[in-house]
Specification:
This protein is α+β, with helices and mostly antiparallel strands. It contains 3 helices and 10 strands; from the N terminus they run H-E-E-E-H-E-E-E-E-E-E-E-H. The strands form 2 sheets. Strands 1-10-9-4-7-6 form a 6-stranded mixed sheet, with no helix packed on it. Strands 2-3-8-5 form a 4-stranded antiparallel sheet, with no helix packed on it. The structure holds 2-acetamido-2-deoxy-beta-D-glucopyranose (NAG) (9 copies). The site of one 2-acetamido-2-deoxy-beta-D-glucopyranose has 3 residues, from loops.
């Protein structure tokens, strides 16, 4: 009887401890990123090229609920440098810190968010990652990379047209013009 009571007490203490453990292991919504797989949907930014200190409007477009017949629970976003460092600032959204990456958590009616790029000029490109989380805890992701517009210092053409190919192409042109002319004159003569 005594051992039975001790067992009951141990089980009772156990049930008190275990829920506390699982709660600290998974704070917030970051767990939704864990098993994300690539999805067929689009994430776009306007403007589409990277510039420092600029406001970008990021939009998620998809038809997945029609195809998969699952409800969306949240949209999550991230903005990363090529070194996977979280950059910039998301405006007016609920944020979480997922493995040191700023991650806006949008509800299922928000598909648009505003992101402001950092002011320093040493970033070559930024990858925007978008995640669609479903009510069954499955998650799809898609990305778009914003690159800097190439510098408009165009290199002068390295090859100058050589005279031989000029002559060849001009005689080809004459031949093309002459064939219909010959046909026309041939018809007129006959
Ligand atoms: C992710 O996958 C692992 C292994 O299959 C599973 O144990 C875990 O519960 C999954 N996480 C989520 C949030 O679905
Ligand atoms: C992705 O979705 C589009 C329409 O939303 C569809 O036309 C296309 O076939 C899909 N691609 C794949 C690989 O499923
Ligand atoms: C960044 O952009 C904002 C708004 O366009 C402007 O007010 C601010 O002066 C800019 N900051 C710098 C350091 O250029
Ligand atoms: C979404 O599905 C509807 C109905 O099938 C279709 O008319 C629409 O073009 C699709 N949109 C995209 C972005 O695939
Ligand atoms: C950045 O993260 C992606 C996805 O997690 C990974 O495939 C890639 O190797 C990482 N790149 C660097 C430079 O760590
Ligand atoms: C985000 O969390 C990490 C630990 O996971 C911590 O080192 C970092 O300081 C946090 N960043 C912010 C901005 O709170
Ligand atoms: C989703 O978030 C937006 C903006 O925060 C809010 O206006 C809206 O009421 C929210 N919708 C739901 C269903 O929670
Ligand atoms: C870019 O510049 C910022 C501030 O000017 C600095 O904190 C950061 O380390 C620099 N990053 C790289 C990759 O040089
Ligand atoms: C999704 O995962 C969270 C955290 O692990 C869990 O509390 C919740 O019950 C899960 N929901 C479903 C539908 O599996």
């Amino acid at each position: 009887m005594a051992t039975f009571l001790i067992l009951v007490q141990l089980l009772f203490i156990g049930t008190l401890i275990i829920p506390g453990h699982t709660q600290t292991a998974q704070p917030g919504k970051c767990y939704l990123l864990q098993n994300a797989t690539a999805g067929n949907f689009s994430v776009d930014a306007v403007p589409p090229t990277y510039q420092p200190n600029t406001t970008f409007v990021v939009t998620i477009t998809h038809n997945i609920t029609l195809i998969l017949d699952k409800d969306v629970s949240h949209y999550l976003l991230q903005a990363l440098t090529p070194q996977n460092v979280s950059v910039g600032e998301w405006k007016d959204v609920e944020m979480e810190n997922c493995s040191s990456i700023d991650t806006p958590i949008l509800n299922n009616t928000q598909r648009v968010a505003t992101w402001i790029s950092p002011n320093n000029n040493n970033i070559s490109s930024v990858q925007i990652r978008a995640y669609i989380a479903f009510s069954d805890n499955s998650t799809l992701f898609s990305t778009v990379t914003l690159s800097k517009e190439p510098e408009t210092t165009k290199a002068p053409p390295t090859t100058t047209p050589n005279s031989v190919s000029m002559v060849q192409s001009s005689s080809f042109f004459i031949a093309v013009v002459q064939v219909p002319l010959l046909l026309v004159t041939g018809k007129l003569l006959s």
